[in-house]
Design brief:
The chain is mostly helical. It folds into 2 domains: 5-107 and 268-275, no CATH class; 112-263, no CATH class. The protein is built from 13 helices and 4 strands. The protein has helices at 5-10, 32-43, 59-68, 84-88, 113-123, 129-136, 138-144, 146-161, 185-203, 205-219, 224-228, 231-246, 253-263; strands spanning 22-25, 54-55, 77-81, 98-100. The chain has a 4-stranded parallel β-sheet, with helices on one face. Strand 3 (77-81), helix 4 (84-88) and strand 4 form a beta-alpha-beta unit.
Length: 283
């Protein structure tokens, strides 16, 4: 039987000797604790001893535990949730002790040209950094995958107005036609047309136009593809396709993710220290 959220959280008590802060996250999948641990140690500049983070199993579980937190043990702690589609909808859940990632999910921080190029350097026995950086051609990759941003605008509108439409069931394989790491624009547009039909039926043409205008204003002011599109389900798999097309590697995707976390730019989460709940603890 799956552990309850309370039981998952209670595990942190048994690891107090290994950590000077208790950090709770959503992800329970294999490998994510190690990725989070490394990124947080980098972002917090080793201010705290972090050997473990504690997955609770979902956004609602993390937020619910944060709401119930009374810190009877008087330890610093932090509850971290993904941005998800809430981010594009302007619902950034942040307060003392609660930190919403400023991008779709933790994998988005790994979408870093330097980190990805460094992976290629490590896997390629001959070519050097500058040559492999040109082969990756990150800026062109971003431009060629802009249709995904349009798709996620429609996902966000569905999330807001048509929650009965389960956009999570849409898989990357349905939107690619090659191993180039670039989506098929026609396949994306077909899905957009399908979603638009559902949305306009639900809220009407005029409200739909207003929503599109609103979301276009949101996305035009950011590095939007790497911020608002899921790197876990779309962007990283595309980049790994692109990398594997150009170099021979037997490394598993999870291994590549972890190694990217060692090199990626972490400036986007440089403010995370401001949200740690400390109470009376002097750190």
């Amino acid at each position: 039987m799956e552990r309850s959220t309370a039981a998952r959280k209670a595990r942190s008590v048994f690891f107090e000797h290994r950590n000077t802060i208790d950090i709770y996250i959503e992800d329970t999948a294999l490998g994510y604790k190690k990725i989070f641990k490394g990124l947080l140690n980098r972002a917090l500049n080793s201010k705290y001893l972090i050997n473990d983070v504690f997955p609770l199993g979902g956004r609602n579980a993390v937020i619910n535990e944060w709401e119930k937190d009374t810190n009877k043990r008087e330890r610093p702690r932090l509850y971290i949730v993904d941005g998800d589609l809430h981010l594009m909808n302007g619902n950034l859940a942040r307060a003392e002790g609660l930190y919403s990632l400023p991008f779709y999910c933790i994998e988005n921080i790994l979408i870093c040209e330097h980190a990805l190029t460094q992976l290629m350097v490590e896997e390629d026995p001959e070519r050097e950094y500058d040559e492999l950086k040109k082969i990756l051609d990150f800026s062109t990759w971003v431009k060629d995958n802009q249709p995904l941003l349009n798709l996620f605008v429609f996902y966000a509108i569905c999330f807001k107005h048509c929650p009965e439409i389960k956009t999570v069931s849409c898989k990357l394989k349905d939107f690619i036609s090659s191993d180039s790491g670039v989506v098929d624009e026609l396949k994306i547009q077909n899905k957009i047309n399908e979603l638009q039909g559902h949305i306009t039926h639900k809220i009407g043409e005029e409200s739909f136009k207003q929503e599109i205008e609103l979301y276009n204003q949101v996305i035009e002011n950011h590095n939007s593809l790497t911020k608002f599109v899921s790197a876990k389900d779309y962007l990283l798999p595309l980049l790994f396709l692109r990398i594997r097309k150009n170099i021979k590697t037997t490394a598993q995707n999870l291994n590549l993710k972890y190694r990217a976390s060692l090199y990626c730019d972490i400036s986007q989460i440089s403010d995370i220290d401001d949200y740690i709940l400390s109470d009376k603890v002097n750190t």
